[in-house]
Amino acid sequence: MKLFRYLLLTAAVFCSSVEAFPTWSKTYSHGQVMFVVPENSGEITFATQSTEAHLVHLDQDGNEIWSLEFPGIPRGLALHPSGGYAVLYDNLGATRLRRVGADGQLLNDVEAPVGYYGRNLAATDDGCLVYAGEDTLVKVDEDFNMLWAVSTADSLVSLLMVNRAPSESGGVCVGGYGMNSWGDIGIISGIADSCGTILWTGLGIDLDPWGCSFIDACAGADGSCYGAGHFASSFPPPISRESVFRFNEPGSVDWKITVYDVKRLCESLDGFLIAAGVADPLGDLDVFIKKINPDTSNPLWTRTHGYPGVTDQCNCIAACQDGGFVIGGTSGSQSLILRVDSSGFINGTGITGPDIQESAISVSPSPASASAAVTVSIPDGGHVIVSILDLAGRQVITLADGYFAPGSHTVIWNLTDQNGEMVPDGVFFLKVDSGSHSETRKITVVR
Predict the structure, then answer these.
(1) CA proximity to 240, closest of 216, 215, 264, 217
(2) What gap in Å lies between CA 17 and CA 108, rounded to an integer?
């Protein structure tokens, strides 16, 4: 099989020069990881559930800096708008909100304004926090004072998930159960605005419409959203599977795919869907990460990671500033954190799944204003040329020309030409060439 069929280039363009964070896999003695929040600095904070809840803070290399123990069960975790962390948790049946400083110091702890079955916590881009309470969407300010509580009963039978919606200023992605006009139950994903009004939702149904359970939902930067659910048929022979849907306004289903044992969804910085879950590739239950083309639903790659002879679980995933991902769960009875790069590898290693990989170049966000971090993933290794062309197809600069070993490689373009001069604002093309195959994507420079 030709090399370029296995080639994946992901170009993540940032407003300043970005270095890739270290990748690693580590376990900790704090119980089951339920929520994880990566920070721009590369540090990571996660919340665990055991006999007591823990909030744990790690440096870039996964070393524990501090941990805070508190009674109850964590229901949500987010970066606090004024610094530190906000934790939604349940203590003896009462839902509470807690603010913890960046150094692990407890700053505030109050009963949640709407406390019935509160879960999930999303920090919105208007400096507030939103969480779900059964059939109520609740928004609080940075001091945890309620701004509004809006019922979602008309749109969702049960509200189970709240995530940030990057396309809607101050809004959130919602997910849960819903019902169509025929009375069929399915999973729901949709977008709500900054006032809690649900703008639109999509309904996903597969197999027996009554045999379903909601898994996760997330929003895309382009205004779409995704939902995942477990579906089972009560008719012989019994069938069960996990399905992922992509919805677009006004709630139409763009596509549906089967992703067995998916547990969590998020969007990558370059606009692709990332699915994480558990798989059994070598006789052990290992964590997998799958990158999916949002337009075609085709998988680009799948990586699995785990510890031999140990059952691993996946409970959460989040995208990092350098384009990589943090996955949290358990390994045996230990807390498990995986820090992978933008191609799903840890130090260039990972079991590559059987998916047929598309040759692809993706640039996001665009326009670029200062520099571009280009990550090239070569599972089998080979000679690769990465270059920038102008609109006329003339060579502007060659970023890489040589043999790439298997794994992930990062190349920085500082928006200069071959002579070191800054390129003018305008449209350019990022090109990857491997033997007889090449592919390009547009990149815009605006300062």
Answers:
(1) 215
(2) 36
- Which CATH number is 428's domain given? 2.60.40.4070
- Whether 314 contacts 262, CB under 8 Å: no
In 3D space, the residue among 407, 268, 263, 266 whose CA is nearest the CA of residue 324 turns out to be 268
The one-letter amino acid code at 2 reads: K
Query: Looking at the domain assignment, is residue 335 inside a domain?
Result: no
**Cβ atoms of residues 86 and 75 within 8 Å:** no
pLDDT digits (tens, 9 = 90+) for 403-418: 877 666 778 889 999 9
Global pTM? 0.75
- Residue 47: closest CA among 76, 6, 22, 5: 76
Q: What is the DSSP letter of 34?
A: E
Residue 14's pLDDT is 40
Provide the 3-class DSSP secondary structure of residue 5: helix
Query: Which range of residues forms the domain containing residue 405?
Result: 361-445
8 Å CB contact between 444 and 367: yes
Q: What is the pLDDT of residues 218-262, one digit of tens each?
A: 999 999 999 999 998 876 667 888 999 999 999 999 999 989 899
